[in-house]
Write a structure and sequence with these properties.
The chain has 482 residues and is mostly beta strands. The chain contains 1 helix and 49 strands. Helix 1 links the parallel strand 1 and strand 2. The N terminus is likely disordered.
C-alpha cells in the first residue's frame, strides 16, 4: 500500500482447518494453483487458498464460487505472470462469484491490469489491487453492463491512460468502503483515480479518493458525458492533482441525478477548479459537505450548472492519522455532526452509550461528514489483537472453536477464572464489528456455547471474548463457508 491510507486493516493470521465440510478445495493442499482449483470447482464450492505468493492469472469461468484466502491480503498475493490481467470475470458471473482477501499485482493489459470485468457482476472484497498497468483502468476495467462490487478494497499505485485506478465503460461499478489512492493517469491522463465513460453509472459511498494524479481532467475522479454518480454519500476526496482542471472531481458533461452530500473535498489542486470542475453542460448538486474555498473552489463553465444547497461549509476538516487511515476527524473538527440531519443519514449508535455515535464516528448521532459517517460506514474498530488465544497480559480467558471452517454456527468452548459477565464480538477481515450480542453471564470454569452465524456472508472473521472486571481478552479466527 502507498503511504498510510489504511482504510483496510488486513489480517496476518494462522488458521487450523478441518475437511469436514464438502465443497472446499484447498490450494496448494488439493490443487497446486488457484486456477486448477477453479477448473475443478462446482456451484457453491469454496477455493480456500493458503498464505503465499501465486504467480498466475485467474479466470472465474462463469462459476458461482468463492475464492478465499486463509490469511487475508497481507499474507496472500496473486501476481500476473505476464501481459494479462490478474483476475478476469468475463463469462456472466454474478454476485455469487466472490474473490476475497488477496493482493492482486503485476498485471499489464490494454483493459484492466488488475481486474478485467466484462458483462459480469462479481463481488471483490477486502482485496488490495496495486502495481498494475493498462491503457484503460490500471487497477480495474469494467465494461458491457458489468455491475461489479468492490467492498473494503484498496486500489492503490496503479497506472493507465484513462482511469489510473478504475475505468468504467458502459458499466455500473459500486465502490463501498474502499480506498482509491496514489494512482496515476497520463497521456492523455483522464481520471487519475477513477474514470467513467459511455453512460456508466458510478456508485461511491464511504470511500477515500486521495493522492491520485492526472495530466488532464479529474485528478481524483472524471465523470464524462452521459454518465451518472449515484449514492455519492460520505466520501473524502482529498489531495488529488490535475494538471488541467478538476483537481478533485471533473464533471465533463455528466448530469448527476443524486445530491452529492456528507462529503469532504479538501487539498485538491488544479489550475482550473481545484476542488471540482463542471463543463460540457454538466449538472451537479451538492449539500452538507465541506469544500475548500467554498463555491469558488469549483469551476462552472458556461452551459453547466451547480446547485449549492443547504449545509455547506468551508472549514479545515482537521484530519488526523488514526488506526484506520490518515483521514479520521480530529477533535473539534467542524465536520462532526454536520452532515445531513435526517435520521436516515445518522451515524451508528454506540450500544453502550445511547444517543452518541459509535467510533470512529464521533459526537452525537447526526451524520459526520467523511468516510466514517453515516450508516454505510458500519462500525469500524480495527482488529483488536493480532494473535489468537488469550491475551498474554490478561487472565486465562479461554475461547476455543470445535472445527474450522464453519457453516451455520460457532461451537465454542469458553472459560473464565471466576463467574462474570462477558461480551462476545465478531469482526470481519476489515475490522468492522458485524455481530455483537447482548452481554451474558458465565460461571467460573469452562462452558459450551453454540452461536448462530447464518446471517454472515462467506468470509474471514475473528471472534473475541471479553470479561467484565478482567483485563485482557481471548480471540480466535474462523472462516465462514456456505
Amino acid at each position: 500500500m502507498l503511504g498510510r491510507h489504511r482504510v483496510l486493516p488486513l489480517l496476518a493470521l494462522c488458521w487450523l482447518f478441518t475437511d469436514a465440510l464438502a465443497g472446499v478445495l484447498h490450494v496448494p493442499g488439493d490443487y497446486p494453483t488457484i486456477q486448477a482449483a477453479i477448473l475443478n470447482a462446482y456451484y457453491g464450492d469454496t477455493v480456500l487458498v493458503a498464505p503465499g505468493t501465486y504467480v498466475e492469472s485467474i479466470n472465474f469461468l462463469s462459476k458461482a464460487i468463492t475464492v478465499l484466502s486463509e490469511a487475508g491480503a497481507a499474507e496472500t498475493s496473486i501476481q500476473s505472470p505476464g501481459s494479462t490481467p490478474v483476475a478476469t470475470f468475463a463469462n456472466g458471473e454474478t454476485s455469487s462469484s466472490l474473490l476475497e482477501g488477496f493482493t492482486l499485482s503485476g498485471g499489464s493489459y490494454q483493459y484492466g491490469g488488475g481486474v478485467y470485468c466484462s458483462a459480469a457482476s462479481p463481488v471483490i472484497r477486502s482485496c488490495v489491487i496495486t502495481g498494475n498497468t493498462a491503457d484503460y483502468g490500471g487497477g480495474l476495467y469494467a465494461q458491457n453492463g458489468s455491475s461489479i462490487v468492490l467492498e473494503q478494497c484498496a486500489v492503490e499505485g496503479n497506472e493507465a491512460k484513462w482511469g489510473g485506478g478504475v475505468c468504467a465503460w458502459a458499466a455500473s461499478p459500486r465502490l463501498l468502503n474502499c480506498s482509491v489512492s496514489g494512482n496515476t493517469a497520463s497521456s492523455p491522463g483522464i481520471g487519475g483515480g477513477i474514470y467513467a465513460s459511455e453512460a456508466s453509472v458510478l456508485t461511491i459511498a464511504n470511500s477515500l479518493i486521495s493522492s491520485n494524479s492526472s495530466s488532464s481532467t479529474g485528478g481524483g475522479i472524471c465523470v464524462s458525458v452521459g454518465c451518472d454518480l449515484t449514492v455519492p454519500l460520505n466520501n473524502v476526496i482529498a489531495f488529488n492533482h490535475s494538471a488541467t482542471k478538476g483537481g478533485g472531481i471533473g464533471f465533463a458533461g455528466a448530469a448527476v441525478s443524486e445530491v452529492l452530500q456528507n462529503s469532504i473535498l479538501w487539498g485538491n489542486d488544479a489550475p482550473i477548479g481545484p476542488q471540482a470542475s463542471l463543463d460540457f453542460s454538466a449538472s451537479v448538486s451538492i449539500a452538507y459537505s465541506d469544500v475548500q474555498g467554498g463555491s469558488s473552489g469549483v469551476y462552472v463553465a458556461s452551459g453547466s450548472s451547480l446547485s449549492w444547497l443547504e449545509g455547506m461549509i468551508d472549514e479545515d476538516p482537521l484530519f488526523e492519522s488514526g488506526s484506520l487511515s490518515d483521514y479520521h476527524l480530529g477533535p473539534g473538527s467542524p465536520c462532526i455532526d454536520s452532515g445531513n440531519p435526517s435520521p436516515d443519514h445518522n451515524d451508528p449508535e454506540d450500544p453502550w452509550n445511547p444517543g452518541y455515535a459509535h467510533w470512529p464516528a464521533l459526537g452525537a448521532l447526526r451524520n459526520d461528514m467523511g468516510i466514517y459517517g453515516g450508516g454505510g460506514a458500519g462500525v469500524w474498530t480495527g482488529i483488536p489483537g493480532a494473535d489468537e488465544g488469550p491475551d498474554p497480559d490478561g487472565p486465562a480467558i479461554l475461547i476455543e472453536l470445535a472445527g474450522n471452517p464453519v457453516s451455520e454456527a460457532l461451537e465454542l468452548r469458553l472459560g473464565v477464572p471466576v463467574a462474570c459477565q462477558v461480551e462476545l464480538s465478531i469482526f470481519d477481515v476489515a475490522g468492522r464489528l458485524v455481530l455483537h450480542p447482548a452481554p451474558f453471564q458465565l460461571p467460573g470454569g469452562e462452558s459450551g456455547l453454540r452461536f448462530g452465524i447464518v446471517e454472515l456472508p462467506v468470509g474471514l472473521y475473528m471472534v473475541r471474548l471479553e470479561a467484565a472486571g478482567l483485563q485482557g481478552a481471548g480471540s480466535l479466527r474462523f472462516v465462514r463457508l456456505r
